Amino acid sequence: MSVLDVEIDALTGGSADLSQYRGSAVLVVNVASRCGLTPQYAGLEKLHQRYAARGFTVLGVPCNQFMGQEPGTAEEIATFCSATYGTSFPMTQKTDVNGAERHPLYTGLVGTADAEGHTGDIRWNFEKFLIAPDGTVAARFAPQTEPEAEEIAAAVEAVLPR
Fold first, then answer.
1. N or C: which end of the chain has fewer CB within 10 A?
2. CA-based nearest residue to 64, from 36, 106, 94
3. Are 42 and 104 in contact (CB under 8 A)?
4. Distance between CA 37 and CA 154 in Å, rounded?
5. Which candidate, 129, 127, 123, 122, places its Cα nearest to that of 143?
6. pLDDT mean over 87-98
7. How many Cβ atoms sit within 10 Å of the Cβ of residue 15?
8. What is the pLDDT of residue 68?
9. What angle do CA 26, 70, 108 make, to 5 degrees?
């Protein structure tokens, strides 16, 4: 089973329908509005815009598990992201990424190692996972890795649909 087969709701309600991304590359990122890394939203939007026409999207997954840095309602999160950073990429419902209530999407992601060999629990907000068009997890990036970093661009380029 691919992570694209997992069911999760969209931030504003209804299904996020991850299967719609089959055949595309997706960067899944657990996000938060009140974190020191929150300015990464700007880089995520730039990355989304840079590759969207080539079959790529960023998928934001709000999470409030790290020092309560995503306390808002779905409407507050959506308003903050669009008004502050002009985000246009899709977002899911607020989700647990660690612990007993870890969402199945993250159960399918956390076994992938990043460049330093880290697997398992999400360490902080803005940890990133690149999903290849076939639904496999192609790469994992630490929270501090900026969305516009060369290693992310190279990984995205390597998995973009041909």
1. C
2. 94
3. no
4. 22
5. 127
6. 98
7. 12
8. 97
9. 35
Structure tokens, 53: 């026409």
Q: Which two tokens stand for residue 6?
A: 């997992």
Residues known to be catalytic: 35
Show the tokens assigned to 55.
């079959």
Please compute, for residue 34, the number of CA atoms within 13 A of its CA located in the half-sphere on the CB side.
Answer: 11
Other C-beta atoms closer than 10 Å to the C-beta of 6 total 18
Q: What is the DSSP string of 15-72?
A: B--GGGGTTSEEEEEEE-SSSTTTTHHHHHHHHHHHHGGGTEEEEEEE--TTTT---S
Question: Which domains are delineated in the chain?
Answer: 3-159 (3.40.30.10)
d(CA 30, CA 127): 6
Categorize the per-residue pLDDT at 67 as very low, low, confident or very high, splitting at 50, 70 and 90.
very high
Place of tokens 């060999």: 117
User: Residue 97 and residue 107: Cα distance in Å, rounded?
Assistant: 8
